[in-house]
Fold this protein.
Amino acid sequence: MRSALGAPALNLLLRLKLRGMVRRQVRRLRTPKGFVLTLVGAGAFAAWIASLTVASFQPIEPLSGHVGELRVRAFGALLLLVSLSTALTNRGLYLPKAEIERLFSAPLARADLVRYRLLAGGLRSLLGGVVLGLFGARRLPNPPLAFAGIVLAMQILPVINQFVAIALGGIGQRASRLARRVGTGLLLGSLAAAGLLALSLASGRGPSRVPVLGTLARALDGGEDPLLHPLLGLVTAPLLPWVRAVMAETPGEFLPWFVLCLGLFALASEVCARLPVDFRELSLATSARAAARLSRARAGGGASATRADRSLARYRIPWLFGRGPAGAIAWRKCAGMARKAKGALWIALLALAFLVLFVDLFFDGPERALGAPVMIATLGTIYLCSGLRFDFREELERMDIVRAWPLHPARVFLAMLLPEVVLVAALLSVTVVLEAAARGTLGTPLLGVIACLPFLVFAWVALDNLVFLIAPVRHVPGQDGLVQNAGRRMIQMALLALLALLTVGLAWLAFLPASALARELGAGPGGELAAGTVAVLVVLLAVDAVLVFLGGFVLRSFDVARDRG
Amino acid sequence: MEGTATPPLVVEDLGREYERTRALRGLSFEVRAGEIVGLVGPNGAGKTTALRSIAGILPIQEGRVLVCGHDVARDDVAAKRCLAWVPDDPQPFDSLTVEEHLEFTAALYGLGDWRGRAAELLERFELAEKRGALGGELSRGMRQKLACAQAWLSEPRLMLLDEPLSGLDPRGIRSAREAIRQLARAGTAVLLSSHQLELIEALADRILILDRGRRLFLGTLAEARATLAGAGGPQSLEEIFLSATGGPPAEPGAGGEP
């Protein structure tokens, strides 16, 4: 027997899974640690939602008319592009590994499996729709109507995603590889476009030092650029019903568009469920790939969670850190970075380019010579180290092997972190030099920043790894234990920020007397800066040495038998 | 420190507790050079915990472990240089090729002139054709063979093997068994944990039976028969094991349930 929403057994499975999720959350609340983490995580989430809700009641000049529609269209197009990019990379019908073989072998119609998946995807995007609605509705002409419109618009995304993923299910292997590449390119392009849009809006209407930002800002503000409007209009024309529902000012204006969107949603869902494509083989491959990715993410996350590139295995990895036991550990890390970090490095370069544009918004005077590189170095270190996780954070599944290595734990700690530190410091050094060269601010302050960078990066990576080794956890974003892990991450970040501030404070305390002493001794501004930099270097070196010692201690007492669930 | 008569492995009163569970209680034994000791016990008996404690992976909570005369708790680096460990579920590095795993191991243990021996081990463990494959591409059996090749490369004085044959095909099982025998003949002390009792029976000079963290028996198979077997004459290790650790599982319909 079937209901309008699909096979009852699948609906039951969905309900049972939801109940299981709630049950696991309740179980977590029973331990003191789980309770505290839930409290922090849920408290932060509730505070965020509350702030969005309160903000939605604050008066703000709403976007309306042509400018508003243009911005809503641009944002909608970006969301659609991101959704399409995942459809191209994960084709077929995605079902978790634990379910796929059982469900494919069960007496169920293919259409019912698709409906089940759409329902699960719809529940996920409902939450996303509510958050986006709370965030965006206040900027639109009629917030309650806009909220309903946004929630409904978010529901169509998984349907379109699934439609494309299934429709492309029948293409050959070569086309399949091409589709994956196009998907990745689309994702990167969408992220770049989103970044540019955000920066152009932040840079305001005035003439920006970066021409493209100024052009985009003017285009989004009503259209001085004749090229962008027709193009944007054409590309985003299919989004019109949803845009009109979101932009409606009165219920009378809203209702017809809302009903049309609802109808399109139902029609698209049904067409998607009835697509005559046998997606089983492709789905099995997609599911296995996703399971492997999740497993790698559970073991480390970030760039280290990508699969090593087979084609790069034929190149020898140079032994940059010597041929001894510690050099061997660092060499292995270098091999991981060389063979796995290609995609992450592209994203890192993109992010650094945006960081340079972002920093440009803050400085417009003589302070930029020191301020810009310091800001790039600080934000860049935090961002790059969270993505390039070629350190202990990718070793949780292998800590028993690491513990068995015949090497002092402090040396293991140092060797594990060095390659990542060198890579991040090199990337940031090149970025600050290029930025300063482009702005004509190359000079002594920049040299000081570059000299301190490796030690600063090491301190941050070492602190991050210390915190991880003290309280390690396997977690994949978006998976089970989301609230607790949000809480854990917040506590960890607070601790990290505190320790980092302490380090920076110590460095500053060393900088001041050293540069004052140089001034007393008659040194010029260059000499003062040099003396201060040397003092900072000494402090950072001492901090790094203490961190290596502590890392060794924590590694020695690391208990591999403890469950990191 | 390292006397010639010192057995490669001496375990004295080894104990360990996980939160509220007692995993090992007062475990004492030694493994002499060239000897193979088979470690058997039911699930949760403490076999892997014992092996991991000896390998220096778990901190020693109670008792003492001497590897080649080095106290694992005080001088773990020197102890680890003398031993090799094959885990029950090896996780190779997914970004290194099979050959690079051996290169890494050679550098880690400071081995000179290792290439000839590595080539020999790749042949022995049927990895020669996979030498360029990445660790993440290997099947369960191949991962096991790679872990064995890495362990054999450093020519350890003490070899700790935790279920070394799981996942291997019949040919792999045969060559691994032969490799273990050869290792012992060359003077290496071997502590071999396995649920495959016929393997232990075929290879081990002595048998150590653990149950709930305690040593139930340590001795040769003949001594086990004399001590633990009933009056029914010669018995297999499986029968001895089952009777020592609480009797055989009930046959279907043998009682209990109506």
The longest helix of chain A spans residues 482-520.
